[in-house]
Design goal:
single chain; 335 residues; alpha+beta; Alpha-Beta Plaits; 2 domains
Length: 335
């Protein structure tokens, strides 16, 4: 009994007979913490993806609703860009026409064109000779045979000035300045067309912006309501997790990944919808343009715009999920 009572620790069951080694550290290392953090995020991502795949029809239709809401403003924006490309740039639509005096020689007109092109307010300047102006007028007016009977060319040479920026006050000031140049008979600018063009573009931009805001709010409501249903289905599980010490960030993480996954699916679907829609519409546009002797066609979805659409969808899904979880997180405390 005495020997047993006073036995050394090394002689007990499981003793090694050696002195205990010095502990390596006073807690987990940074690598261990990083690995645990990455493993937690990986598990949350896999769990969220698995739950979405268990309900493929519901997940698909949720992504489809989000995709339609995303594709509407992006599609309108792409159509505006194509229409602007069809009509030419709006700087070119605001050209100032300088009609030269009839006695101005081609050398004087070219020298004046080069002088105007160097102005900081001018983006480009193009000289059209009298012969070229007459030829274009014959082709466009249909009076070619009648104009050939004229004793001499009545049309002056023209310098077309494209401004750097389109602004009514600046354009009028530039027109007055160019009208005072030597050998210039008249400087003409269609300010009414400039104002109409500016108003049309701004109206389209405001409409797309307003529609985008409304659809963003609708997307947040859709994703928030969807995440709320997932939270209700897992209420008991979440309460147990919080009961054993699970943090709010741990509870929130899988739902955030779920929202981001909804965003990925919606962004890819929206990209496909836009690509298919523009391609389907392009056939009718090409046929119509061919009737007017034009080779115009709609441009597809640029890669940068498609990636921006995908990134925006992921962010909207993430934000919507975060708002939904933040709203219901306090209600999930264990009872």
């Amino acid at each position: 009994m005495s020997a047993t009572r006073h036995s050394k620790p090394a002689e007990r069951v499981g003793g090694s007979g050696h002195k205990p080694s010095k502990p390596e550290a006073d807690g987990p290392t940074f690598n261990h913490l990083l690995q645990a953090w990455l493993e937690s995020h990986r598990a949350s991502l896999v769990d969220s993806l698995r739950r979405l795949l268990k309900q493929p029809i519901g997940s698909f239709f949720t992504c489809l609703v989000m995709a339609i809401a995303l594709s509407l403003p992006m599609g309108l924006s792409l159509l505006l860009k194509n229409v602007e490309r069809l009509g030419g740039s709006w700087q070119r639509a605001a050209q100032i026409s300088l009609f030269m005096q009839l006695q101005a020689s081609p050398q004087e007109a070219e020298q004046l064109r080069a002088q105007i092109a160097e102005l900081p307010e001018v983006a480009a300047a193009e000289w059209i000779s009298r012969e070229q102006a007459l030829e274009e007028f014959q082709q466009q007016s249909g009076l070619g045979e009648a104009l050939k009977e004229l004793p001499e060319n009545p049309l002056p040479s023209v310098i077309l000035v494209t401004p750097e920026k389109v602004d009514k006050a600046n354009l009028e000031a530039l027109r007055l300045r160019l009208a005072e140049l030597p050998k210039v008979e008249q400087a003409q600018l269609d300010l009414v067309w400039v104002e109409r063009l500016t108003a049309i573009l701004k109206l389209g931009e405001h409409f797309v912006f307003g529609l985008s805001l409304l659809l963003v709010l609708a997307l947040l409501l859709v994703i928030g309501n969807t995440i709320r249903l997932h939270i209700e289905n897992r209420r008991i599980e979440i309460e147990v997790i919080k009961l054993v010490g699970g943090t709010d960030s741990y509870v929130r993480r899988p739902f955030l990944y779920m929202g981001a996954l909804y965003g990925v699916g919606a962004g890819l679907l929206a990209w496909l919808v836009l690509a298919f829609g523009l391609d389907w519409l392009n056939a009718a546009v090409v046929k119509l343009a061919g009737l007017y002797g034009s080779d115009f066609s709609l441009a597809g979805v640029p890669l940068a715009d498609g990636l921006s659409l995908l990134l925006g969808a992921v962010l909207l899904g993430y934000i919507g999920a975060w708002l939904a979880v933040a709203r219901h997180l306090n209600e999930l405390a264990p009872r």
